[in-house]
Specification:
The chain has 372 residues and is mostly helical. The chain has 9 helices and 5 strands. The longest helix has 82 residues. It starts with a helix and ends in an 11-residue tail after the last helix.
C-alpha cells in the first residue's frame, strides 16, 4: 500500500508538471498568433504609377507636332528627351518591381514561419494533453487500487467510496506526518551537532584568547629581555673599555689566593676572553675549567669589581656562593676574604654547616644567625 501511495504522489506531481508545461505552450501559442496578426500585408503597387508612362507619350506627340509644324531640330531634341525619360521610367519601374517581389517573398516567408510555429506548438499541446489524460487515467487506477487495499484492510467495516477516499486521505496524511517527524528528528540531531560544534568553537576561542594574552606577555618579556641584553652588552663593553691594571692585578691576586697558587695571572682580551696562567706558565681559556674553578673565577671577578663599582664601604653578601667549592677551596676563599676585606661586613647565606666548619677550622671569628 505504501508503494502505491508513493507512486500516486509521483503521478500527481507529474500531472502538475505537465499542466504547467501545457500552460506555457498555450502562452507561446497566443504570442505566436499575436505575432502572426501583427504581420502587416504589403500594399499592391499603385496603379497611378502607370500614369508616368502618359508623360513621355504626350511629350512624343508634342514632338511630332513640332516636327511637322515648326522645326525639325527642335523636334529631334524633344524626341531625344522623350526617349531618355522613357528609358529612365522603365529602369526605375523594374527596380521597384524587384523590390516589391522581394518584399512579398519575405512577407510570405515570415507568415509561413509564424504559421509553422503555431502548428508545432499546437501539436505539442495535443501531445501534452494526451500525456496528461493518460497519466490521470493511471492515477485513477492507482487510487482505485489504493481504495481496494484500504477496503481489504477493513473487511468487517462497511465503507462506501467517500469513506474509502477519506481513509486514503487519512493514510496519506499519516505518511506525511511520519515524514515530518523523521525530518524533525534529523533536524534535532543536526541541531545537537551544531550546538556541540559551537561549544567547541567557544572553547577554541577562549583558548585562542588565552594564547593571545600569553603571546602578548611573551612579547613584552622578549622586549624586556632585549632591553636587558642591550644594557648588559653596553655594560660589558663599558667594562672592557674601563678595565684598569689595578682591577686585573686584584683579579690575579684573588684567583691566586683562592686556588692556592694553581693559577697565577688572569688576562682579559677581546679575542680569547678570560685566560689564566697555570703553574707551568701556560695560558688556558676559562671555558675549559671545571665548574668549581669557574665558580672561583666568577667570585674573584665580583670581588675584584667591588672597588671599581663604588668607593663606599658596602657589605658583601654571598648567597650559596660556595655550593660547588670543595673543602680546601672553601677554606682558601674564606681566609682570602678575611685577610683582604676585613673592613667590610661579609654576610654568608647558606643552608649547610660547611661554611661554619671551615670558619672554625681556619679560626676565623664570625657571628651566626639562624633564620626560621
Amino acid at each position: 500500500m505504501e508503494q502505491i501511495h508513493k507512486e500516486t504522489k509521483l503521478e500527481e506531481e507529474k500531472i502538475n508538471i505537465l499542466e504547467k508545461a501545457k500552460e506555457d505552450l498555450e502562452k507561446s501559442r497566443q504570442e505566436a498568433k499575436t505575432e502572426l496578426t501583427n504581420i502587416k500585408p504589403i500594399n499592391e503597387k499603385s496603379k497611378s504609377k502607370n500614369l508616368l508612362y502618359i508623360f513621355p507619350i504626350i511629350l512624343t506627340l508634342i514632338t511630332l507636332a513640332t516636327f511637322i509644324l515648326v522645326n525639325k531640330t527642335v523636334a529631334l531634341v524633344g524626341l531625344s528627351i522623350t526617349i531618355i525619360t522613357l528609358i529612365t521610367i522603365i529602369i526605375k519601374n523594374q527596380k521597384e518591381n524587384k523590390a516589391y517581389q522581394k518584399e512579398q517573398e519575405e512577407h510570405r516567408k515570415e507568415k509561413r514561419n509564424a504559421e509553422t510555429k503555431i502548428e508545432l506548438i499546437e501539436n505539442e499541446i495535443k501531445t501534452k494533453q494526451n500525456l496528461i489524460n493518460k497519466t490521470k487515467d493511471m492515477l485513477n487506477q492507482k487510487k482505485q487500487t489504493q481504495k481496494l487495499q484500504i477496503k481489504l484492510a477493513y473487511p468487517n467495516t462497511k465503507l462506501n467510496l467517500d469513506e474509502i477516499e477519506e481513509k486514503a486521505n487519512t493514510y496519506e496524511e499519516q505518511n506525511y506526518i511520519n515524514s515530518l517527524k523523521l525530518t524533525i528528528s534529523q533536524k534535532e540531531l543536526f541541531k545537537k551537532e551544531i550546538e556541540k560544534k559551537l561549544e567547541e568553537k567557544t572553547k577554541i576561542e577562549e583558548k585562542l584568547q588565552a594564547n593571545q594574552e600569553l603571546l602578548e606577555e611573551l612579547i613584552t618579556h622578549d622586549e624586556e629581555i632585549n632591553i636587558a641584553k642591550e644594557a648588559l652588552a653596553s655594560a660589558y663593553q663599558e667594562m672592557k673599555e674601563s678595565i684598569t691594571p689595578k682591577f686585573t692585578e686584584n683579579l690575579s691576586n684573588s684567583i691566586k689566593s683562592i686556588t692556592n697558587g694553581k693559577y697565577k695571572t688572569v688576562k682579559v682580551n677581546e679575542e680569547n676572553g678570560l685566560t689564566l696562567e697555570t703553574e707551568t706558565g701556560n695560558y688556558i681559556p676559562a671555558t675549559v675549567l671545571s665548574q668549581g674553578t669557574i665558580d672561583q673565577l666568577y667570585l674573584s671577578l665580583r670581588i675584584s669589581s667591588i672597588n671599581e663599582l663604588t668607593e663606599e664601604n658596602m657589605p658583601l653578601i654571598l648567597d650559596e656562593t660556595f655550593a660547588y667549592f670543595d673543602q680546601t677551596r672553601l677554606q682558601n676563599i674564606l681566609t682570602y676574604l678575611t685577610n683582604n676585606y676585613s673592613k667590610k661586613q661579609i654576610i654568608i647565606l647558606t643552608c649547610t654547616k660547611r661554611e661554619e666548619e671551615a670558619l672554625e677550622t681556619s679560626d676565623i671569628k664570625y657571628t651566626k644567625t639562624e633564620l626560621t
